[in-house]
Design brief:
Blueprint: H1 2-24, H2 36-41, H3 43-66, H4 68-91, E1 94-95, H5 99-105, H6 107-120, H7 128-137, H8 156-177, H9 183-207, E2 219-220, H10 224-227, H11 259-269, H12 296-301, E3 318-322, E4 326-330, E5 338-340, E6 348-352, E7 358-361, E8 365-371, E9 377-380, E10 383-390, E11 393-399, E12 405-409, E13 412-417, E14 426-430, E15 433-439, E16 449-452, E17 457-462, E18 465-470
Parallel strand pairs: 1-2, 4-6, 5-7, 6-8, 7-9, 8-10, 9-11, 10-12, 11-13, 12-14, 13-15
Antiparallel strand pairs: 3-4, 15-16, 17-18
Helix pairs in contact: 3-4, 3-9, 4-6, 4-7, 6-7, 7-8, 8-9
């Protein structure tokens, strides 16, 4: 019965819009003229309007009771959802753009996110937690930039859930602070969460679980490059590289550590102050503070990865925090003093395309991935989930804390240095060769013990099933 009533409400809403269009030429949310039919009749747009009415309305009602900056930031949230609605309509009439075109296409939403972020800057506010939770929550709207499994983003449903986690830390502070002081603030915080979980998450799950569906026959999106700069508009973001993948073939490398790299690890283990001279990640290097890399645009730039490797070039070196949750270290060559020290367990680290470099991760993070690196050294304090080495040649990885899982996939030559706290973890290997694990001795002065992991196995059919055992080789 409830479902029938909801269906009737949707039909009545559609009829009302049709009447408004025919009599007054009204277009809700300022939609583009060619999108009227899409806006009125498309189930996904109707459902998005239901989402805004049901969930966003509650946040606005609570904000109006509070007023001031809380109401201001909530109106920006409302504006961001309106911007996303317009993009959803345009997507249905637009061919899938290239990377520059996608960045330009997402500019209206990106502009609102930047506006929200600017409210947090400057002098402290009595409602900082409100401003921060609302501004951080808007990153969930970047699910619309998902273009496929190789774009560097989580799937849309997971992306919305992960993005809300950034805001929930501050939302929980509001619940604690105003629990016995003002129910309006408590209602606002709860309504904001419901807007995303279950609101936006369930909407994406029902209509766009695999991301937006671009039109095959629609018009072409205008890229920032083809438009040219506007004297009144801010400069467009820098175009992404042709590809984040390198076309170079990995060179063969021995698993034995080179003298230079071993010296670096020995210095780290010695307890000496090795951080002196390391290159720090300053505030202006972080994505959130860079004018050319803010909000949604980052997600769009990652689309560059789908470009054919055969025509790709090595991109510019990067060491930056994207969307507040993912450290990206890319294309670093010969840099022995890379360091990440402002990190936490909700963030991940992705190291890609680096050669002859050393990275130190001084805080515990959720996950570390080392992809397509050659003669690369990575030292990390610990991981919550896993450290993954994939498609690498001659890398050295040292864990100074705990690591539940270390996986090595399609890698030739890998030295793993384990701490006593990481000996309880599991190591999985696949399609890899020359994998050596070094473990600390029993005493502080004892030498490291080196263990070569088997890369060849024998399979014998016995008692109705195959028995697999590693093949050991005597040293020459």
């Amino acid at each position: 019965m409830a479902m029938e009533e909801k269906l009737i409400q949707r039909l009545e809403s559609a009829v009302t819009r049709l009447e408004a269009l025919s009599t007054a030429g009204f277009r809700s949310g300022g939609s583009i003229a060619t999108g009227d039919d899409v806006e009125v009749l498309d189930p996904s747009i109707i459902a998005f309007d239901d989402l805004r009415s049901q969930f966003l309305g509650k946040v606005l009602s609570a904000a109006e009771m509070i007023g001031g900056q809380v109401l201001d930031i909530t109106k920006i949230v409302e504006e961001a959802f309106s911007a996303q609605r317009e993009l959803l309509i345009k997507i249905k009439e637009t061919k899938k753009p290239d990377n520059s075109g996608l960045a330009e296409f997402l500019k209206p939403l990106n502009h609102v996110i930047v506006k929200a972020t600017k409210m947090i800057e400057g002098r402290g506010s009595d409602f900082f937690n409100h401003l921060k939770s609302a501004a951080d929550s808007l990153s969930a709207l970047a699910w619309i930039a998902y273009t496929g499994k190789d774009c560097g983003m989580s799937m849309p449903i997971a992306y919305v859930e992960e993005s809300w986690q950034m805001a929930e830390f501050y939302s929980n502070k509001i619940l604690v602070e105003f629990k016995s002081k003002d129910p309006n603030h408590v209602e606002w915080a709860k309504a904001l969460k419901e807007l995303y979980l279950p609101g936006l998450r369930d909407y994406v799950k029902s209509h766009y679980p695999l991301g937006p569906v671009w039109s095959a026959t629609g018009k072409t999106a205008v890229s920032a490059l083809s438009k040219g700069p506007s004297p009144s508009a801010p400069a467009p973001p820098a175009p992404p590289p042709a590809s984040l993948f390198s076309s170079e073939s990995p060179q063969a490398s021995s698993s034995r550590p080179k003298q230079g790299m071993s010296a670096v690890f020995d210095e780290i283990n010695s307890g000496k102050p090795v951080t002196s001279g390391l290159r720090k990640v300053t505030d202006d290097m972080k994505t959130k503070n860079r004018a050319d890399r803010t909000g949604v645009v980052n997600a769009g730039e990652k689309e560059a990865r789908v470009t054919a490797p055969s025509v790709s070039k090595t991109g510019p070196p990067k060491l930056e925090l994207q969307m507040g949750r993912k450290w990206v270290v890319e294309n670093q060559v010969g840099e022995k003093n890379l360091v990440i020290d402002d990190c936490d367990t909700k963030q991940s680290v992705y190291v890609y395309g680096c050669k002859g470099s050393v990275l130190q991760i001084k805080g515990k993070v959720n996950n570390i991935t080392i992809d397509k690196c050659t003669k690369m050294g990575v030292v990390f304090a610990g991981v919550v989930a896993a450290c993954e080495v994939v498609n690498c040649n001659g890398v050295e990885v040292q864990c100074q804390g705990s690591a539940p899982t270390i996986s090595v996939d399609n890698t030739n030559g890998c030295q793993l240095y384990l701490n006593k706290d990481s000996l309880e973890g599991s190591i999985t290997t696949a399609k890899s060769s020359e994998i050596n694990v070094l473990v600390p001795g029993a005493g502080p002065d004892d030498d490291w013990g080196e263990h070569a992991l088997p890369q060849q196995y024998a399979h014998v059919y016995k008692d109705g099933h195959f028995v697999t055992t590693p093949v050991s080789h005597s040293g020459a």
